[in-house]
Amino acid sequence: MSKTDNVKGYGNNSINWYPGHMAKAKRMMQDNIKLIDVVVEILDARIPASSKNPDIDELAKGKYRVLLLNKSDMADPEKTAVWKKYYEDKGFFVSIVNSKTGAGVKNTTEIIQKACQEKIEKDRKKGILARPLRAMIAGIPNSGKSTFINSFAGKACVKTGNKPGVTTGKQWIRINKDVELLDTPGILWPKFEDPKTGLHIAFIGSINDDILFPEDMAYELIQILIKDYPQVLNERYGIEIGDGSVSAIEILEMIGKKRGCLKKGAEIDLLKTSKILIEDFRTQKLGKITLEMP
Ligand SMILES: Nc1nc2c(ncn2[C@@H]2O[C@H](COP(=O)(O)OP(=O)(O)OP(=O)(O)O)[C@@H](O)[C@H]2O)c(=O)[nH]1
Ligand SMILES: [Mg+2]
User: Fold this and answer.
1) Which residues line ligand 1 (CB under 6 A)?
2) Helix (H) or strand (E) holding 135
3) For the chain, how many structural domains are there in total?
4) Nearest CA to ligand 1 atom 7
5) What's the CA dihedral at 91, 201, 149, 151 to 10 degrees?
6) Helix, strand, coil % (nearest 5) of the chain?
7) Average pLDDT for the chain
8) Residue span of the structural domain in which 252 resides
9) Which residues lie below 8 Å from residue 50, measured CB to CB, with a gap of 6+?
10) Same domain assignment for residues 54 and 178
11) Is the torsion defined by CA of 121, 125, 130, 136 positive or negative?
12) What is the pLDDT of residues 203-212, one digit of tens each?
């Protein structure tokens, strides 16, 4: 299959990409779900809506559920707290974590035990000897599943990397006498209802950059910044957006001008400018930014 076969709607702001290896990973997860007590889904705290995969809801039907708002160090703390409450109200056990430093990771054992309380009680009543709880670690590519597992285990058991598709197969890891984890490859779902979902997933590096449309991403990011973080554009790029009547494309041009991103003939290079903006978001030069609210 060629690269473009996977990309539908090229140029019209919609990313739709579901490669074969993800379909295969999903089948592997379906095959293993019967062994699992609890599904721990790793969300990216910067996009707590878009990073929640509806296929994982389907897969996890009838299982206890834990959500981890990971990469909390990169997200807006006030908004992360709102999201935690939002998902708790929906019945999930939720924890805020930073897998890179380990903050919040250690109490995952307790959260998993709380989520599985009913099963633990039932087993005790039946006199079944407690075996470790089995948790499937699931989530979209690059959300930090493997980093979380290494942090939780206190040693590097699984491979990690800042690009999608690092984990390609399953791997069981015994954490302690209470918990065993199953690492899984990141999966997306075949169709994004809202094109913004695809763009937001692209921001956090869950889709290979070479199939993306940086200008579309830049316009979306600028619109969010104007609305929720208006000071950031001024602080980072020294541009005044005034009364809000300036369009996203004009702002991108202003950034390009300030950064000297020019093509031959002094035309502004919007592609290059877009890539700078995306890279600044990913490397936190724009600060702690959450792109979505419930
Ligand atoms: N700042 C920050 N970076 C993180 C955190 N968790 C993971 N990362 C980084 O995110 C990148 C992806 O981490 P992985 O653990 O490989 O992600 P994954 O979900 O296993 O990815 P796939 O196996 O490709 O699906 C790595 O560069 C990690 O260092 C976090 O809490 N904070
Ligand atoms: Mg991984």
Assistant:
1) 70-71, 73-74, 98-100, 139, 141-147, 160-162, 164-167, 185-186
2) strand 133-139
3) 2
4) 144
5) -100
6) 45, 15, 45
7) 91
8) 213-282
9) 196, 197, 200, 201, 291, 292
10) yes
11) negative
12) 999 998 877 7
C-alpha span between 18 and 28 (Å, rounded):
16
Question: Is residue 133, in this structure, part of any structural domain at all?
Answer: yes
- List pLDDT tens digits, range 42-52: 999 999 999 99
How far, in Å, is the centroid of ligand 1 from the Cα of 146? Answer: 7
Q: What is the CATH number of the domain that holds 275?
A: 1.10.1580.10
Q: Tell me which residue has its CA closest to atom 26 in ligand 1.
A: 162
- Position 166 scores a pLDDT of 92
Atom of ligand 1 nearest to the CA of 97: 31
**For atom 1 of ligand 1, which residue has the closest CA?**
71
Residue 149: inside a domain, yes or no?
yes
> Is residue 290 assigned to a domain?
no
pTM of structure: 0.93
pLDDT at 14: 55
- Cα 144 to averaged position of ligand 1 atoms, centre (Å): 3
How many residues can be counted in the chain? 294
Residue 223 lies in a domain: yes
Alpha-carbon torsion 151, 152, 158, 160, what sign? negative
Q: What is the pLDDT of residues 64-75, one digit of tens each?
A: 999 999 999 999
Q: Which of 99, 137, 150, 201 is the pocket-test mutation for ligand 1 (most atoms within 8 Å of CB)?
A: 99
Using the mean position of ligand 1's atoms as its centre, give its distance from the Cα of residue 142 in Å.
5
List the structure tokens of 226: 């104007």
Ligand 2 centroid – CA 31 distance (Å): 19
